Amino acid sequence: MTAEHEGHDVYLQAALAEARQGLAEGGIPIGSVLVHGGRIIGRGHNRRVQSGSVVLHAEMDALENAGRQPAKVYHQCTLYTTLSPCPMCSGAILLYGIPRVVIGENRIFRGDEALLTARGVTVSVVDDEECVTLMREFTARSPELWNEDIGVEQ
């Protein structure tokens, strides 16, 4: 991890813990945390399989678990996610005006980073080896489930 990203380590580790929890539950290993003022206010992991949900990606779960917040809180948050956010999650980031997103990795899947950046969101990709390995192993083991999650027709 580069010096630029060292301050993010504790939050990325929390997102990784969420990803590992999701995998242990039989789901997809993607985790996310929402941080405000140096404190995690929302944690989540992809729970589509566990909940039979079409929308519970990790970022959406973290936002849901943060509960209702005033707009000014979202405008001061950083969202940490183990994998690049998909179009749905990117839309939620934009809707709530979250100004910063830190991504664990985007080798396995690159979401709408360009859209986020174009709309003024600061996007940092850490390229964390644990995030890469977790997703690489999962997608090799469960390609059908992964393709379902990202909307690829089989």
| Distance linking N and C termini | 36 Å
What Rg is obtained from the alpha carbons, in whole angstroms? 14 Å
Mean pLDDT over the residues: 93
Q: Which regions are unreliable across 5 or more consecutive residues at pLDDT < 50?
A: 1-5
Largest sheet: 5 strands, mixed
- Strand order in the sheet with the most strands: 2-1-3-4-5
Q: Output the structural class.
A: alpha/beta
**Total of DSSP H or I helical runs spanning 4+ residues:** 8
Give the helix level as a range of percent: 40-55%
Fraction in beta strands = 15-25%
What is the string of SSEs from the N terminus onward?
A: HEEHHHEHEHEHH
Shape: globular
- Beta strand count: 5
What are the SSEs and their pairings?
Layout: H1 9-24, E1 31-36, E2 39-45, H2 48-51, H3 58-66, H4 71-74, E3 77-81, H5 87-96, E4 100-103, H6 113-118, E5 122-125, H7 129-141, H8 143-150
Parallel strand pairs: 3-4, 4-5
Antiparallel strand pairs: 1-2, 1-3
Describe the structure.
The chain has 154 residues and is α/β, with parallel strands linked by helices. It has helices spanning 9-24, 48-51, 58-66, 71-74, 87-96, 113-118, 129-141, 143-150, and strands spanning 31-36, 39-45, 77-81, 100-103, 122-125. The protein has a 5-stranded mixed beta sheet. α7 (129-141) crosses α8 (143-150). The protein starts with 8 loop residues before the first helix and ends with a helix.
